[in-house]
Design a protein that fits this description.
disordered N terminus; about 0% strand; single chain; two-stranded antiparallel ribbon; 23 helices; mainly alpha; 2 strands
Length: about 500
């Protein structure tokens, strides 16, 4: 892979929530130590980034892991902004961590950036740097793993082959359809330079949901990269998009365009099936009976049967919100049945697909995403037995009478119970959420435990997805959704990690 960004547009800011963008100058560089001309020269064969962010990215790349938090904290005290740190974190990841042999594993250093950002936005001001500093440390771990594996670094793009405008879009579609890595690399560079951001991601929404390889990480990278770019600025897009295209073309064996794999069949079928949905399908009525009916099919039907039922319900006038209620709740139900890596990704993939569904302005893409997520849920379900025991649980098990009663419960008590008896904690949470203000109290407490006890990218990815999608589920189903997902949150009895202490000391 190869690329170079030619435009510069410094992104500054410093809004408390990290979401308000502003333009500024290079003043923050005066706080860095002088850099020799020799040091400033990039190694040959390495992609160049926007000049405004290159020095900070180099700092993240070259500072030893045991000193990085302190170095970044020192620059924050001198005026380094949240957006600059977030941008450098994402760009250091895409330049130094290869999304191969899978889009998961060490590449979570990139995938987790938006999740850490979401956790930061939702946190009290005094906690906002904790997720970002965790992600900085995690990047260094992933960078070291990549160095041991292949020592991969994104290289410069083949400038002579970069198309522009409509030619870039056409070339990208052709390359992606043919799983052509070199063709997609130059085409996406051209798209980054000449197309509107939303138009670029309209294409990625489809290709991110095209196949079931990497258990949903492709769709997750699409959603998370777009959301992070909206915060750090499009001037940083080109290397991110090149990494994204490279990740989406990850596959095993021969060219998938020339064979018929299980991972690809739902997309091919659903591309046709989506055309049979009534034109006014987004106007429908909410129906709890339809939610229950689709849940039953997701529990036992094939991916074809699940997708056929989605179409049938929509054509009967059922609201797509009811379809999403069933799909999101079922992802949590899978986690009840087998807490672990596979079911966890059914939740985070549904979160990413639902985000793309909301973000796209293309009606055909929106239909396809709804069908693809239904198919993926059954494929996640079928993958569970290969990972161990699958418990015969459903959200109906959450209706048992909790002890103590809902009035005597608190977030701290539930999260302490989670470390001892997850099912009891889930039942207690279901009762607790009926109280006014309970969700805000619980989400704040749960996030703090992720900061204190999380040691894996999935702790951030999962918690951010679940706490966000609670609001995407209809009131009738959302408490069951969250209670089912408590099985993968951090309990109060888990040991603390050491990173919070280091962050506090660095920022003190």
């Amino acid at each position: 892979m190869t690329s170079r960004i030619t435009r510069r547009n410094m992104l500054m800011g410093g809004a408390a929530a990290g979401a308000v963008l502003g333009l500024g100058d290079m003043a923050f560089l005066k706080h860095l130590r002088p850099v020799s001309a020799e040091e400033a020269q990039l190694k040959p064969g390495v992609v160049r980034l926007d000049p405004s962010i290159e020095p900070l990215v180099r700092l993240l790349e070259e500072t030893p892991r045991e000193r990085l938090l302190e170095e970044v904290a020192d620059r924050i005290k001198k005026g380094l902004s949240y957006q600059e740190v977030l941008a450098a974190l994402l760009l250091a990841g895409v330049r130094n961590v290869e999304p191969r042999p899978s889009v998961g594993f060490k590449f979570h250093a990139v995938l987790v950036v938006n999740s850490a950002h979401i956790a930061s936005l939702a946190s009290p001001p005094e906690h906002r740097w904790l997720p970002i500093f965790w992600a900085l440390d995690y990047f260094k771990e992933a960078q070291a793993k990549d160095e041991l594996e292949r020592g991969w670094t994104m290289g410069p793009v083949d400038e002579s082959a970069v198309p522009r405008g409509a030619a870039a879009q056409d070339a990208f579609i052709t390359a992606m359809d043919n799983w052509d890595e070199s063709g997609a690399d130059v085409a996406v560079a051209g798209m980054a330079r000449s197309m509107k951001p939303g138009d670029v991601y309209e294409l990625f929404y489809r290709y991110g949901s095209r196949d079931f390889r990497s258990i949903g990480h492709k769709a997750i990278f699409v959603a998370n990269s777009w959301r992070t770019l909206q915060t750090i600025g499009w001037q940083h897009a080109e290397p991110v998009l090149r990494s994204l295209a490279y990740a989406l073309l990850n596959h095993e064996g021969t060219n998938p365009a020339q064979r018929d794999d299980d991972a690809d069949r739902p997309f091919r079928r659903n591309s046709e099936l989506a055309t049979s949905i009534r034109p006014d399908w987004q106007n429908g009525k909410m129906d709890d009976g339809a939610v229950s009916e689709l849940l039953q099919t997701l529990r036992s039907g094939s991916n074809n049967e699940a997708c056929d039922q989605v179409v049938a319900l929509l054509n009967l006038g059922i609201s797509p919100q009811s379809i999403w209620d069933a799909q999101l709740v079922y992802s949590g139900e899978l986690l009840m049945r087998q807490p672990g890596i596979v079911a966890l990704h059914s939740v985070t993939t549904a979160n990413a697909t639902h985000f793309a569904y909301q973000a796209t302005e293309n009606d055909e893409t929106r239909r396809l995403l709804l069908l693809q997520n239904a198919a993926f849920l059954t494929m996640f379900r079928d993958a569970l037995p290969g990972r161990g025991n699958v418990k015969p649980l459903t959200i109906d098990n959450l209706a048992s009478d909790p002890s103590p009663t809902g009035a005597d419960l608190s977030s701290d008590r539930i999260l302490a119970e989670l470390s001892r008896d997850p099912m009891a904690a889930a039942q207690q949470l279901k009762a607790f959420l009926a109280r006014p203000g309970a969700m805000e109290e619980f989400s704040n407490a749960a996030r703090v435990l992720v900061f204190l006890k999380g040691n894996d990218a999935h702790d951030y990815k999962f918690s951010s997805a679940v706490l966000e999608d609670y609001g995407a589920v209809s009131p009738r189903w959302r408490d069951s959704y969250l209670a089912a997902n408590i099985f993968q949150l951090q309990g109060a009895g888990q040991p603390d990690n050491d990173l919070v202490r280091r962050t506090r000391e660095a920022l003190a």
